[in-house]
Amino acid sequence: MGKVYSLLTRPIRTFNVESRAERVITREKPIPAPEYTAEQKQREEVKKLYPNFMETHNKKNPKLDDYLKNVFVVSKDPQEVPSSIKLLGTKGKCTFNEVVEFLNLYQHNPKEYTVEKISQDYNLDKQTVENIVSHFQILSKTTMKEMNIILNKEAK
User: Fold this and answer.
1) CB–CB of 133/103 below 8 Å?
2) DSSP states of the chain
3) How do residues 44-61 score in pLDDT, each as one tens digit?
């Protein structure tokens, strides 16, 4: 339906385009809206105090131009923050990736990565880490083996 409609309306839109465009181009500039009296008074005061303001304003200042020529901007892509660096002020909070990371560490070696060590490393409450470790077991041994197989295939 849209194509039919555009086929029907196009001749109407393009009728006499050149003369309509020429009429708009040859028109005198539109009359600006009237200014407030406060603006007019302000402009008059500026002209009295600084009669050459517009001339100095539009002139090129060589000193400022030299400053601008000496500016050199270098842009770099933001680098990723290593996961070993923990942000200050995030006590009691961690990201999903960090949770997955410490759950994997805990599952692989629970004697080395104890709940106390994880709570110190990630600035979390010990009870919270115990709850996470006991209730959120993301990967079991069978799924870990499957994931290792998948990762090895992707690496090759």
Assistant:
1) yes
2) -HHHHHHHHHHHHHTTHHHHHHHHHHSPPPPPPPPPHHHHHHHHHHHHH-TTHHHHHHS--HHHHHHHHH------PPPPPPTTSPPTT-TT---HHHHHHHHHHHHH-TTTS-HHHHHHHTT--HHHHHHHHHH-----HHHHHHHHHHHHHHH-
3) 999 999 999 888 888 998
pTM of model > 0.90: no
Exposed/middle/buried for 115, CB within 10 Å: 0-12, 13-18, 19+?
Answer: buried
Please count the residues of the chain.
Answer: 156
What single letter denotes the amino acid at residue 144?
A: M
The CA distance from 2 to 8, in Å, is: 10
Contact 122, 86 (CB under 8 A): yes
Task: Identify whether the C-beta of residue 124 lies closer than 8 Å to the C-beta of residue 94.
Answer: yes
